[in-house]
Fold:
Amino acid sequence: MAKQILFNVFEMSSAMHNSHGLWKHPANERTRRYKDLDYWTELALLLERGRFDALFLADVIGVYDVYQKSKDASIRDAVQVPLNDPAFAIPAMASVTEHLSFALTVSTTYEHPYAHARRMSTLDHLTKGRFAWNVVTSYLPSAARNFGLNEMIKHDDRYELADEFLDVSYKLWEASWEEGAVVNDRENKVFADPAKVHEINHEGRFFRVPGPHLSEPSPQRTPVIYQAGSSPKGKEFAAKHAECLFVGGPTPEHTKQSIQEVKRLAESYGRNPDDIKAFTFLNVVVAETTEEAEAKFEEYKRLWSGEAAKAQYGGSSGYDLSEYTDLDAVFEYKHTEHGQSRAASLTKDNPKKLTVREVLESFDTLKRRFAIVGNPQQVADGIQAYFEATGVDGFNLTHMITPGSLVDFVDLVVPELQKRGIYKTEYAPGTYREKLFGQGKRHLQKGHPGAKYRHAEKSTV
Amino acid sequence: MAKQILFNVFEMSSAMHNSHGLWKHPANERTRRYKDLDYWTELALLLERGRFDALFLADVIGVYDVYQKSKDASIRDAVQVPLNDPAFAIPAMASVTEHLSFALTVSTTYEHPYAHARRMSTLDHLTKGRFAWNVVTSYLPSAARNFGLNEMIKHDDRYELADEFLDVSYKLWEASWEEGAVVNDRENKVFADPAKVHEINHEGRFFRVPGPHLSEPSPQRTPVIYQAGSSPKGKEFAAKHAECLFVGGPTPEHTKQSIQEVKRLAESYGRNPDDIKAFTFLNVVVAETTEEAEAKFEEYKRLWSGEAAKAQYGGSSGYDLSEYTDLDAVFEYKHTEHGQSRAASLTKDNPKKLTVREVLESFDTLKRRFAIVGNPQQVADGIQAYFEATGVDGFNLTHMITPGSLVDFVDLVVPELQKRGIYKTEYAPGTYREKLFGQGKRHLQKGHPGAKYRHAEKSTV
Structure:
């Protein structure tokens, strides 16, 4: 049997996510409805009908104001602003679905682990274990300023802090409440056994947290951990902590190498490389016929905004493309503290030096390589080829417009992939971790740094 | 027409709220189900059927470990632990209701206003303006320790911080995005007008937040502000900020005086005292007949836990009642930094000195004065008398067991109150603030310290 591909949808609680300028498309419902509960519950129902594994919710906690040293381009073109907190749509979506899981992005740089741990446990309880946390360290300088800092915490320090943040979190989730602590014993008047509820007494460089954890153990205890680190420090962090790895690269080969590198590193940390599932971006423009699909793509292209693309790039990379005015000069990066190695991807793996004009032009048009365009068979072929070339386990499917792009995918591409035996027709039972790694694997697997905090006497799987 | 009474239900995301020991009651579904989404959605449907104004969600962010210098009594008897984050049930409840509002408790002591403001805006968006924030400053020493502090921030400093926290919040909610900033103008390619999205450039003693706010204006902008301060500093804070005041006192007269004092203070701040609605506790044990109600009360009494009551008192007051061993001595408070003037309520307004024995005994039994017990007519009489004696605008109805106590109230008491013309039969339209203060009053009213940040050109009501 062919290997089945995992599929998430990649979303954001904003009028616009990554399809720059496409808020203007008249069928793009998110533009008006991203702040309505029924936008999210309808989306969840659609994704469950399409047998998606999870809805992956991106987030930032600041505005993109590096480009032109101003927030104006972002505000004008809805570049991930306005932006609501993505966490709160999850319970409403969970209440109308049974199997769809939810991966929530939260930064370790601007939260406190004690309150954060309770938030994650609550979401894991309310979704009955259909929950993942995408750990990020935040790249926007405007976020740092709004949390009262004069400048961003340096990239590598953010990862040190994140590492300790996760350590505190694992202790709260895994070590504080033993399995069986809640007995609910009416006769002996014991709701929970105090001997099985432990303080964690964490004392580290960044945090001092005595505990105990406030929530009783949720179905998965630790939510499934996503991570998307691409710098050396980020890859090390992913190799240690990630159960799902979100990687992108300028080429499929680059993506493949990144995955292999993280898996090798994971092995050096004593983990089984198969305990990490790798995901990369996917964007699809599909219609019944090739011609219709091409026409759709052309329509999206007309609405594309290069200014929006540059504004987002500015915030996420730290490079202000408006500073590059000599169009014929060779494009060169200046040093940045942002630490997004993604920034370097414009030139990396490209032996030919690009001119400033070439780089700027690459932002101005919706490029074909950003999406697989075609009829259902062509798109399925493209996905299979991309799947094999990258060595990923699954995709985070982004969109041009919502729900339109996703409806198209569910109605046209999913049946074709199912026919080919590479897309599930029914959900597996259990929590998100069990659906990903197999029945009985509700908790962090052996070798994961969080697993060591579980009490030995706890023998449940 | 008689004045209609406002009714909230007082709840907590925990196996037990204030009915000490009653987690043991076999019909108390919360004991097992407080962590399930359908517990909350069923509750919301019940409350909307009963025409409740709002569900008021209490919260603490620590364990009650002052009594016997240990967390054990609290854990054994489910004294507000385990405890989930109450915010996440709200979107699921909002998705199944149309009119019920939600008041969420969040402490200003351990959150950052920039992230917090987006959370509140998101909840106001998703509920379509059916949202209130109960501002607390946290009384548990264990919370302080878990946020890395050696000791609690002093009571009055917590209020200074809360005051600045609210100032930052108002600026983000009221001053950052002008009305009409989001134009969604496809032809001119402008989603939002950058000239109408402002930085707030807050620089204060505790916070430095340049802004802008991440969320676009929600239906109410600032959620309805609840506050329950009872100390002198707390009353001053409430007089300045509260739109809903939650007061309790040892006697109805004491409650009445507290309300009048806050309203007088509010006037001195330039506010209309009618812009503050006052609520106090209500607990009801009702059945078709007096005999059945009495039998129920006796059953609850048998399950009562004095240890749980003392454990909660320890955390909320700072006084460890296990230290008082000379039963015949006169009970006297020692100085505490906790600052809960509630602590003093055991003796305040009581000219007679109590002995330690009398004080301890008052915790050991479920006392009649904690609840109105009787048939529907008796309970309605009791509520009317209590309403008049306290001068409140409404009640936060607590429970012995859930949903049982609330089902009884909805089925037996609400129709009786409706018959008397003091309970609404239909909801008013609009946001929570409009439902409370009248149509068109979606936003903070004139004289409120947050209202001054609204842009003059914004003329919407």
About this structure: Chain A is about 35% helix and 15% strand. Residues 337-344, 457-461 of chain A have pLDDT under 50 and may be disordered. The longest strand of chain A covers residues 6-12.
